[in-house]
Write a structure and sequence with these properties.
8 helices, 4-stranded parallel beta sheet, about 220 residues, single chain, alpha/beta
């Protein structure tokens, strides 16, 4: 059962009725019935369910969910409390410490960020167990692109954070000059030293928010 908040449902209702999305739903039903798929079906839209459209301050675009047991929870880079913190998130916490001089809570559940207006949106919202990228190209990218387009249309500025080439693929969708875009390498251990470390995105985000008279994000 796909659970999406009324706020986003009303905005996405036309998208949810399109043939590609109905086909995607059918594919998901088959996959969940025959394989181990992450996150659990009722957690697919967790990122949207925590942050209303008008309350989004920051969008951090990820690729697809973690693909090992117990990790994926419907928000990019986030894992449930008690689960070992994945390497990319370890590096995110390292950059926060370097940038802001604060120690992050030793807990990979980023719900605390979501509640402050950080939309943790993966481009692809589901994945097969142990197979990274296995649900790429089945329709999710079209759907999540529509979310980016809706945010692009908003009057109130949004800060889009794009780490790595996969995230940067949404750049052409962000056409409104009132918004802010921060890009760097991905925080993965394979690429973090190519520009993620030292990007200072977390202080930049807070400085932008303060300049607009908004509450900065507590990144602990």
């Amino acid at each position: 059962m796909l659970k999406i908040s009324r706020n986003w449902y009303d905005l996405l209702i036309d998208e949810l009725k399109k043939p590609y999305f109905l086909s995607l739903q059918q594919k998901l039903n088959e996959e969940y019935n025959s394989r181990t798929i992450y996150p659990p079906m009722d957690k697919i839209f967790t990122a949207l369910n925590y942050v209303k459209y008008d309350d989004v301050k920051v969008v951090i675009v990820g690729q697809d969910p973690y693909h090992e047991e117990g990790q994926a929870m419907g928000m990019s880079f986030s894992v449930p409390e008690g689960v070992a913190i994945p390497p990319s998130l370890v590096n995110i916490f390292k950059e926060i410490k370097s940038d802001l001089g604060i120690e992050c809570i030793k807990n990979g559940d980023l719900t605390r960020w979501a509640k402050q207006g950080v939309l943790l949106l993966n481009a692809t919202l589901t994945v097969r167990k142990g197979q990274a990228g296995s649900h790429k190209g089945i329709g999710w990218e079209q759907f999540t692109s529509q979310i980016i387009k809706l945010l692009n249309e908003r009057e109130k500025p949004v800060i889009f954070v794009l780490w790595g080439n996969n995230a940067k693929a949404v750049l052409p969708l962000i056409t409104n000059k009132r918004h802010f875009v921060l890009t760097s390498a991905h925080p993965s251990p394979l690429s973090a030293h190519n520009g993620f470390f030292g990007c200072k995105h977390f202080s930049k985000i807070n400085n932008i928010l303060l300049s607009m008279g908004q509450q900065p994000i507590d990144w602990h």
